[in-house]
Amino acid sequence: METNNNVNQDIIAALSNISERKLYEEALTNIAEGVSATVGDKFFISLAEHLARVLSANYAYIATTIKDKPNHVKTLSLIADGNIIENIEVNLDDTPCETILEKNICTYPSGVQKKFPKALMMAKMHVEGYAGKLLYSSSQGNLGLMAVMYRKPIQNVAMVESMLRIFASRAAAELERELSEEARRESEGKWRIITENSPDIILVIDHDYKILFLNRTISGTKESVIGNSIFEFVSEKSRKVMKECFDRVFKTGKPDEYETDYLTTDGKIISFNARVGPITHSGKVETLIISSTDISERKQMLNMLHIQRDISIALSGSIEQKEALSIILDAAMSFDGMDCGGIYLYDSSSEMLDLIVSKDLSDNFLNNASHYENNSDNIRLILAGNPMYIEYKDLPI
Fold first, then answer.
1. Is residue 323 pLDDT above 70, yes or no?
2. Which residue of 75, 177, 290, 311 could cross-link 87, Cys pair, CB 3.0 to 4.6 Å?
């Protein structure tokens, strides 16, 4: 080259083909911008559309494996000549897709129909070239596959395979997320069925002892209970035992249990055996699950057996009638949770009724209801053999 000063100079120029690099950049841009804002079905449709456009493929699809149906997949998105096609289920036997599950990635640049004559669908689609990539997760294994198909031979195999690897990585990540979400929903559904049909009362509490979950209540609504401290619904006596148990489980991470009594709004006492277990996250106890079983009937039966034993032992000795009746009265009051009571004896000869033993009855009651003559209403009721239930304030004394 000659300059204005008539001086010869040499220029060296280096030219490189950057089309491949630009294709990579376009692929990454398509993944980042074209599908980043979508999830679920729309994500896979968008990804397949971008894959077909970047690789100039006639067909592109993303498919997932079908549980309990080996060698079958169902498409999540299927693009044909730029159009979205209805998803289908595919048997991979005797198709190029089958080899993907074994080889991770495979490409047939041309002659697909001759190599796989039983792949009738590809024949109808006039497929000549095929390239596919396995969708894989380290935690869940084979998730499905991604592929592109051409009516003409594939020209740049290396480029197509490289693009498939890029797109497949993103597709596998989204598919893994969806499967994990589906598993979570399924697990929650099973948990809900179990808890809703459990005879136990099941709760979840946090470190502040606040109720986060409750399958059912003894009284009131779940909404009125959730969010409040569990100690608001138990007696002062039970709180210490419960708190000590909760603190042990939070500290050690080991299951524990306790027994407590619950007083209902109508004054009924219900006894519970509660098993407490840790719910951990990243090795740390975050919450506790409490399963409480109503043991009132069991405790009542056990108490009755103890009472029967004590009565048998007491009556087996030589004791007077009044002492024996006093033992029976104590047993009856203990069994039924009564705070006062008495036993009358009926004299068949005089047809009169007399209070023989009593416990904690008021002076007014003792003065007015310790003896009944043979012509009284109480005598007639007793002779009729029917029990009578009446409030103290309504007694005619």
1. yes
2. 75
